[in-house]
Amino acid sequence: MNLRPNNSSHPASPTELLHSFRTLNPTSPRLSWYGPDAERVEFSGRVLDNWVAKTANYLADELDAEPGTVVALDVPLHWRSLVWLLATWAVGATASTTPTRASAGSVPDIVATTDPAGAHEQFAAAVPAPLIVAVALPALQMRWLGELPPRTLDYSGDVRAHADEFFADDSPTPAHIAWQHGSAATSYERLLPDVQQEPDSDAQAPQRVLLQVREGWDVVVPAALKIWAAGGSVVLLDTDVEPTDHLRTSENITLG
Predict the structure, then answer these.
(1) What residues are paired with 211 via a beta bridge?
(2) Could you give all domains of the chain from N- to C-terminal order, each with its CATH number?
(3) Which residues contact 178 (CB under 8 A, 6 or more apart)?
(4) pLDDT in tens, 159-177
(5) Of 188, 222, 193, whose CA–CA distance to 93 is shortest?
(6) For the segment 101-142, what is each residue's pLDDT rounded down to a tens digit?
(7) Taking CA 147 as the corner, what is the angle to CA 141 and CA 153, rounded to the nearest 5 degrees?
């Protein structure tokens, strides 16, 4: 999927971005997460690419996701939701971070959720009903703990069985919607910034940037894509984690 001419080393599509994760300093951190209960998770470029590839293969092989599929992310802003976004774009589908409604014309094909019981009840009368996937957030949780509603899939229990590399069978058109958030719709050709044309971009070394969940999807997601496209890395803090000077120093934060 080559959405615009790319005469620089900066990725112009999700496929090129994932390629940069595994080829541009692949052992260096690309995403660090600070979550509840002192949880800290760090992903090198190679490991982040592996997580995205496994999730993309899960979407394609088990959920039949492809260009035109709408994947609703009923999950909080989190490292897992960023993985789901990247995986959805890898298969060429549309990711929606807008609250879902079981009304005519707004039923997604897939709902990834941290509340599978609520999603099952919400879409019980929908025809056709979406595929509901339970997503456990803790990094060390290998499966969903507790009972799942009927016909609900367990992402954490199933995703690790999938391959570490992903190759898409089809590509979206440049005008296809990649991300729907609120009233804003972002096409694939507008998803990644043209870093080459930004002032002083060539003069700056890759940044280690602090982002906070409290800033919201519409700030964090575009910022993370811009940082990654420029070869940098993201440190993402949950709402309960304070951005202290000690944290900034220990994480070698250069911006934010």
Answers:
(1) 236
(2) 14-250 (3.40.50.12780)
(3) 14, 89, 94, 95, 172, 186, 187, 188, 191
(4) 999 999 999 999 999 999 9
(5) 188
(6) 655 457 999 999 999 999 999 999 998 999 999 999 999 899
(7) 70
